[in-house]
Amino acid sequence: MPDVYSPLLNQLIEAFQCLPGVGSKSAQRMAFHLLDKDREAGGRLAATLERAVRSIRNCERCRMLTEEPICRFCGSDKRDATQLCVVETPADLLAIEQSGAYRGAYFVLMGHLSPIDGIGPAELGLPLLERRFSSERFAEIVLATSVTVEGDATAHLVAALAHKHGLKASRIAYGVPVGGELEYIDGGTLARALSGRREIEASSGEGGR
Fold first, then answer.
1. What is the pTM of this model?
2. Is the pLDDT of residue 195 over 90?
3. CATH of the domain at 108
């Protein structure tokens, strides 16, 4: 960072760079805008960010981000409790919800399998997911992971766990491009992908149905 900036301004610019896709130039524009044009908004942003970091946690049932122990999706009695949609991120959950094509329960992995990054089954909450498989009466597990190598590997692992508990597992496919991440796909395409989902068969050697 240039020496012409004060130490605190340097810290502010560097802090903005923690956001995805924000480089030094974008961070500078954000910092200058808040300080020069809208300090009141900057104060609201700082206060809200502090409250969010302190209060928002993972739902105890599905791992969605929420201020409460149980999120509004898990707490609703108007959703189809026989279906469970497994997604990678909160953004994926919201994309599916906004499509209007699904009204069941959710489980948020908060990522995907990535051994090189140290992300395995425990980091994805799979022990909690498996407990739900054994304790709740699901008719179908809908796997809505991204159509990437990591998403495929994650979907097959979750499907194997579902089959071990005698549960049907299906994967959304139609209309979702290879390499696509769900949060960037339009609602119409997601709705078609959900309605055109395909069952994942248990492979030989798994517990199976």
1. 0.79
2. no
3. 3.40.1360.10
